[in-house]
Amino acid sequence: MPKIFAVSGKGGTGKTSIAACLVRCLIERGDSPVLAVDADPNSSLAEALELTYDRTLADIREVKEPPAGMPKPDYVRMAIEEAICERAGCDLLVMGRPEGQGCYCSVNHLLRGTLSAIAKRYEYVVMDNEAGMEHLSRRTTDNVDALLVVATPDVPSLRAARRVLETARDNKLAVTHTALLLNQASEEPGEPLASMIGELGVERVLRLPYSTAQRSVYEEGKGIPSLPKDDSLLAAICGETLAILDEFT
């Protein structure tokens, strides 16, 4: 079974960059290929990984009739395989917008079943989710080994982190472990942030430093693969963060 890491959090906290860093760290230590799943409707994980894609699972769901003579289950399986963007060390699958209530139920069922089957070909799956975790709450994937909630050290971000965790609990998602990744946190948070963090009920809290190189890399139209190896954020994720995830799994 694959080890599934789901990254979620408020927009602007750096969750997509962190998910991309995690993918890079896994690849660099030899755990490739990694399946990167972009489950955020903004679909920015591809850019962060310096990858391109032609089709999303939402595009496949919108196809009402498969090619003549092809059963719909066969078409869906073939289309998902073709939607996977394959690069050295990393395969990317973009979910696109979440499914609407009650639409294309049979196709949605096929999508979920096929995605679960595809995920089993990988040792690691990294999912970049929106704060509402729509794809997780609709059971797009199986058990999540670690839910990594990203926040910055401020009250609005931590409130969003609390809502993410509440969504997981209210929907009774199969989440084995939880951790808060406090991004751009150079020091231990004081009150009231410390109390808010303590009330989240996560197993681990990890502070991540500000990346000095990330902005310049993004301004050049590049992504996480172009970060220097000694970048502070990348080093922290490849080090302590990945070590904690190894403990979880």
Protein described:
The mean pLDDT is about 90. The chain has one domain (about 5-249): Rossmann fold. A hairpin with a 2-residue loop joins strand 3 (about 85) and strand 4. By secondary structure, the protein is an alpha/beta fold. It is about 40% helix and about 20% strand. An eight-stranded mixed sheet has the order 3-4-2-5-1-6-7-8. The chain has helices spanning about 15-30, 45-50, 55-60, 70-85, 105-120, 135, 155-170, 195-200, 215-220, 230-249, and strands at about 5-10, 35-40, 85, 90-95, 125-130, 145-150, 175-180, 205.
Protein structure class: alpha/beta
Please write the CATH class name: Alpha Beta
- In CATH, what is the homologous superfamily? P-loop containing nucleotide triphosphate hydrolases
Compressed to H and E, one letter per element, the order equals EHEHHHEEHEHEHEHEHH
Please give the order of strands in the largest beta sheet.
Answer: 3-4-2-5-1-6-7-8
Number of strands: 8
Highlighted features:
249 residues, Rossmann fold, eight-stranded mixed beta sheet, 10 helices, 40% helix
A few lines on this structure:
The protein has one domain: Rossmann fold, CATH 3.40.50.300. The chain has 10 helices and 8 strands.
Topology:
Blueprint: E1 3-9, H1 15-28, E2 34-39, H2 45-48, H3 57-62, H4 72-83, E3 85-87, E4 90-94, H5 105-119, E5 124-129, H6 134-137, E6 144-151, H7 155-170, E7 175-182, H8 193-198, E8 204-207, H9 214-219, H10 232-248
Parallel strand pairs: 1-5, 1-6, 2-4, 2-5, 6-7, 7-8
Antiparallel strand pairs: 3-4
